[in-house]
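Contributing new records

If you add data, match the layout below exactly. Sequence lines come first and carry their own label; structure lines follow with theirs. Keep one chain per record. Anything else will be rejected by the validation script.
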Amino acid sequence: MKTYIILLVTVFSLLACHKENEKSQDCYTPPTFDIRISKENILIKDFLTDMGEVDREHISSFLNPEKPLLTEGYFMDKEKQTLCISCQTFETVYTNKKEVLYVKNKKHTYKIEIIGEMIPTRTCSSVSIKSVWVDGKSISKENIFYNGYLGGIYLIK
């Protein structure tokens, strides 16, 4: 009888631990803000080297000059023919207030103003972007995208 009670307590303990682990699913990916530039866009040359490669040396992003962001990736999307610059924002630009993000290349520093928010979901949060301005010029809704932890704009001239 004693063995059955110990076995029963052990089984219930294991089941309780399993359910507890199911509830606490962490979100591993910090939210990003992406800037995408079409290969047809005249602005793309300022983000590329003379050899046509992504100019990793001169591209950076920051909230202010003393606080650089991790620009986590630059890549050419061959299928969509766009350059993608992905900035990890760590929720600093998704506060539901107007926040400023700067993206710099070898010739220009873009001031990107964003009104966006993090929306809690069952397991993590997702990004919602309401408005974006680049150098004071409003970006149209069709050039703003967001999906899950990814948000961004298509930079146009």
